[in-house]
Amino acid sequence: MKYFIQTYGCAMNTSDSERVASVLERLGYQKALDEKTTDLLVFNTCSVKQKAEDKVTGLRKNLAKLHRQNHDLKVAITGCMVRKSTVQKHNERDVLLSVMPEVDFTFRIEDVARLPELLKELDPTLTFDDEPDEGTLENYFKIAPKKSGNFSVFVPITTGCDKMCTYCIVPFTRGRERSRDFDEVVAECTRHTEEGALEITLVGQTVNSYGLSFNDRKSGKFIPFAPSPFAGLLRALDPLYEKGLRRLRFTSPHPRDFTDELIATLAELKTICPYIHMPVQSGDNRTLRRMNRNYNVEEYKAIMRKIQAAIPGCAISTDIIVGFPGETDEEFENTYKMYQEMEWDLCYISRYSPRKGTYSEKSLQDDIPARIKAARWHRLNALLKETTTKKHAAHIGQTLEVLITDQIGVSCIGRSREFKEVHFKSDHPLIGKLAPVLIKSAREFYLEGELC
User: Fold this and answer.
1) How do the pLDDT tens digits run along the chain, 452 residues long?
2) In this structure, is the dihedral angle defined by the CA atoms of residues 151, 157, 161 and 165, taken in order, positive or negative?
């Protein structure tokens, strides 16, 4: 039997897919080359934006074709689109399966250890020699991931979200925020390092609120690490440098939980990379209130200045939504001016689209015409290109340490500690290795250099 997983969305989804693959291979499945040669097709979905869900629901025609070509094919959906684990014959209780009859079953990512049960419900003749143990039914983090590569790995440290941004469905699909046990995270990171990891990225919906949620406080497990359990976790992982870990990253933090203690900790540690992705979403306080972001522009700017003072040369990227309900010309201009002032190293810009089930979809009118959203996006994107080109040009003449992630022939691509994409050429196989690269030229979205 073969499986194929199509992953959409963020680093958290990528990490989750590795755990799904681990369970399936434990059951006896082998990875297929593509969706046409598989017995089980799994879509790990994102639902932060409606467009992401539309991409999946738009697959119906292709799924029907695949079913005609392979009558034994089973199709599953997991990830942020899924609110409960069920099979198609129970679709009277599941909206997603009603909308997509070509899908055989859905499972919440937290229920990944229940895959044998769901597969047997679809086909009672199936038998598995090695099924997940009872502990993983309660805590899917205990499943050792099937890593795509040993040199760079994702480690989830939280699941769910408590922030309740008005445009986001994640708190409703993934549930309230819960953090992994401190020792469990350290143990997994230690294991990855011993297996050759040079880079570890800690992931969570709001990763720096680790240990601070209502559920976490109620459990009492994180009291010894107060006031900032996340800073304590980073300090506990830093000694892995002596075992070979060279880079520790995290994504994505929330400005509300970016404390002075965390900033001081980041400045002290050897493994921490000088790169932070910190979403702002808007540069206008009124828009931020409608988004329920729970900070203001002044607070965000103060955090950025503290980071830049404590970690000179730290690259900072962000997310911005244009055309949010009620966004006036003045409010957009405030966002534009904030971008000019902050000069983020990179920005992921999106146009607002109502996500069914969110507060903004239910209670705020999507009153910004598509043409205005497009005009604002293009204007901000032009500023993005101008700023990134300027930021990249500052690296010309510098030698950056690059972790090579891709190589085709002599063409190599990797990331610097500042998360800059670097292109260079080499006759030697370098994937998974660190190499010094002298930067010769700068493009809008990447650097070009020569191997030293």
Assistant:
1) 999 999 988 888 888 999 999 999 999 999 999 888 999 999 998 876 667 777 888 888 889 899 888 888 999 999 888 888 888 765 556 677 888 888 999 998 888 988 998 999 988 888 887 887 766 656 788 888 888 789 999 999 998 999 999 999 888 888 889 999 999 999 999 999 999 999 999 999 999 999 999 999 999 999 888 889 999 999 999 999 999 999 999 999 999 999 999 999 999 999 999 999 999 999 999 999 999 999 999 999 999 999 999 999 999 999 999 999 999 999 999 999 999 999 999 999 999 999 888 999 999 999 999 999 999 999 999 999 999 999 999 999 999 999 999 999 999 999 999 999 999 999 999 999 999 999 999 999 999 999 99
2) negative
Strands 411-416 and 105-106: unpaired
Cα 55 to Cα 81, 94, 100, 174, 198: the distances in Å are 12, 19, 13, 20, 34
Reading the block at residue 305, the tokens are 């200045």
Start-to-end CA span in the chain (Å): 46
Q: How large is the angle between the packed helices 182-194 and 229-237, nearest 10 degrees? A: 30
Q: What is the DSSP code (8-state) at residue 145?
A: P
Task: Give the alpha-carbon dihedral of 187, 267, 278, 442, to 10 degrees.
Answer: -110
Provide the whole-model pTM: 0.89
Please compute Rg for the chain using Cα positions.
23
- Is the backbone peptide bond immediately before 255 cis, with ω within 30 degrees of 0? no
Q: Which amino acid is residue 165, in one-letter code?
A: C
Pairing verdict, β 421-425 and 411-416: antiparallel
258-285 as b/e, with b when 16 or more CB fall inside 10 Å? bbeebbebbbebebbbbbbbbbbbbbbb
C-alpha to C-alpha distance for 248 and 250, rounded to whole angstroms: 7
Written as six digits, the tokens of 123 are 């086909």
403, 428 Cβ separation under 8 angstroms: no
How many residues does the structure list for the chain? 452
115 three-class SS:
helix
Compute CA 101 distance to the chain's CA centroid, rounded to the nearest angstrom: 29
- For 178-210, give one letter per residue: b (16+ CB within 10 A) or e: bbbebeebbebbbebbeeebbbbbbbbbbbbbb
